[in-house]
Design brief:
The protein is 36% helix and 24% strand. The protein is α/β, with parallel strands linked by helices. Helix 5 crosses helix 6, helix 5 packs parallel to helix 7 and helix 9 packs across helix 10.
C-alpha cells in the first residue's frame, strides 16, 4: 500500500482536511483498470457505502483523477480530496446522502395477464434518481423500460413495490411528471401555439400568461415563429417533437419522462434534437428520464445509463457517463462508453436480435 504522507498535501476546506484524518472505510486499487472504467468501479463502491463513510482509491489513470472524479463528486455534493504521488493518485470521497431523492423506485415488479398465464415485465427493480439528473433507460425491445416509465408517470400501477416522487407515493398521473411520447401525441385540430397552451388552458392559466409561456418554450426548443400558427400536419417529424417538448416544458414539471422521442426521426434531425435537448436540460435544470434502445444516444445524453436485461425485465448494470458537456456525437469518450455498454448488451442479446437491437449503433 502507498504510504499516506498527508502533511505534504493541502486539501481545500475544513471538510476535505477531515478526509485525511479519518481512516477510510473502503480501499480499492484501480491501477491498470481499463474495463470496467475506474470511475464505474468508484461509483459502484460508493453506492455500497453508508452515509458519511469514506472511500479511498489508488489510481494511475490521470483523466479519472483530474476530470472524472471531481465532476462525479461535485454533482452529488460529496466532499473529496486528491493526492498525487509519483504518477499515482490517491482519491478520497465521502458519501453524503441527499435528504430526498427526486424519484425512487422501490422493489417494483409488474406482471400482465396473458392467454398463457402471467407475464412478468419487470422484476424487483430498484432505482434512485436525484434532482437534475439525466438518466437513460437502455435495453432491447421487451425489457420493460417503457413499462417502468409508464409506472413512474402514474399511467399504470406496479403489481408489487412502490414508486415515490419527491417524497410522495405515486398513485396516478401528476403535474410534477410529464411524458413526451415517441409520436408526440399532439392534437391535429389545434395549431402549434394552441397545442403548447393546451395544458395551461386546462389549468385555467390567464390567456396572456399562457401565450407568453408558450412563446418562451417554443423559442427554447428552437421552433421558428413562422410555424407557430401552423397545424400539426404541416410540420416535419422533428418540428412535431419540438412542439411536444415545448408543450411538456410549459407545464413546468419537475420530471420530464421521454419515451424514445427521437426513434422515428432521420439521422440528421435526431442528432440536431439530441444537441438541443442537452441545451434545454442545461437551461431548465429538469430531471429527465429518457427511454432508448440506441446505445450511442444513451452515452451521448445521460449522466447515468441504466442497462436493462429481459425475461424478466430487470436492471442488469449501470454506467456513469462522466463526460464534459455539451457533448458531441464524435467525442472519443462517447464512442468508448458506447463500446463498453454495447459489449455489456452483447452478453444479454444473442443472434439476429442482437444485430437488430445493438450492432446498428456502430454503423454510422
Amino acid at each position: 500500500m502507498i504510504k499516506r504522507e498527508y502533511e505534504q498535501f493541502q486539501f481545500q476546506g475544513e471538510e476535505l482536511k477531515k478526509l485525511a484524518e479519518i481512516k477510510p472505510h473502503k480501499l480499492i486499487d484501480l491501477r491498470g483498470a481499463v474495463c470496467p472504467h475506474p470511475l464505474n468501479v468508484i461509483r459502484d463502491t460508493i453506492s455500497s457505502l453508508n452515509d458519511k463513510e469514506i472511500l479511498q482509491a489508488i489510481c494511475d489513470h490521470e483523466p479519472t483523477a483530474k476530470e472524472n472524479v471531481p465532476r462525479f463528486s461535485a454533482r452529488r455534493g460529496y466532499p473529496f480530496g486528491i493526492i498525487e504521488q509519483n504518477g499515482l493518485w490517491q482519491i478520497f470521497i465521502q458519501k453524503i446522502e441527499k435528504a430526498q431523492p427526486r424519484l425512487q423506485v422501490v422493489n417494483v415488479s409488474k406482471a400482465f395477464k396473458t392467454s398463457d398465464g402471467n407475464f412478468t415485465a419487470l422484476n424487483e427493480v430498484n432505482l434512485t434518481i436525484h434532482q437534475g439528473e439525466f438518466v437513460c433507460l437502455l435495453g432491447p425491445s421487451g425489457c420493460g423500460k417503457t413499462t417502468l416509465l409508464n409506472l413512474i408517470a402514474g399511467l399504470d400501477k406496479p403489481t408489487k413495490g412502490e414508486i415515490w416522487s419527491n417524497g410522495n407515493r405515486v398513485t396516478g398521473p401528476g403535474s410534477d411528471r410529464v411524458v413526451v411520447f415517441q409520436e408526440g401525441a399532439l392534437f391535429p385540430w389545434l395549431t402549434v401555439m394552441q397545442n403548447v397552451e393546451f395544458g395551461l388552458k386546462i389549468l385555467k392559466v390567464d390567456g396572456k400568461i399562457r401565450k407568453a409561456l408558450a412563446l418562451d418554450y417554443l423559442k427554447l426548443v428552437g421552433l421558428d415563429e413562422k410555424f407557430h400558427n401552423s397545424f400539426i400536419h404541416q410540420l416535419s417529424g422533428g418540428m412535431k417533437q419540438r412542439v411536444a417538448i415545448a408543450r411538456a416544458l410549459a407545464m413546468e414539471p419537475s420530471v420530464l419522462l421521454m419515451d424514445e422521442p427521437f426513434a422515428a426521426l432521420d439521422v440528421y434531425t435526431r442528432e440536431t434534437l439530441q444537441e438541443e435537448l442537452q441545451n434545454i436540460w442545461s437551461e431548465s435544470h429538469k430531471t429527465i428520464v429518457f427511454v432508448t434502445h440506441n446505445v450511442q444516444e444513451a452515452a451521448l445524453l445521460g449522466d447515468r445509463v441504466i442497462v436493462f436485461g429481459k425475461n424478466p425485465g430487470r436492471i442488469k448494470s449501470e454506467y456513469e457517463i462522466d463526460i464534459e458537456r455539451p457533448r458531441k456525437i464524435d467525442n472519443p469518450e462517447v464512442f468508448l462508453n458506447t463500446k463498453w455498454i454495447t459489449n455489456d448488451l452483447r452478453e444479454e442479446i444473442e443472434g439476429s436480435e442482437y444485430e437488430d437491437e445493438v450492432r446498428g449503433v456502430a454503423q454510422r
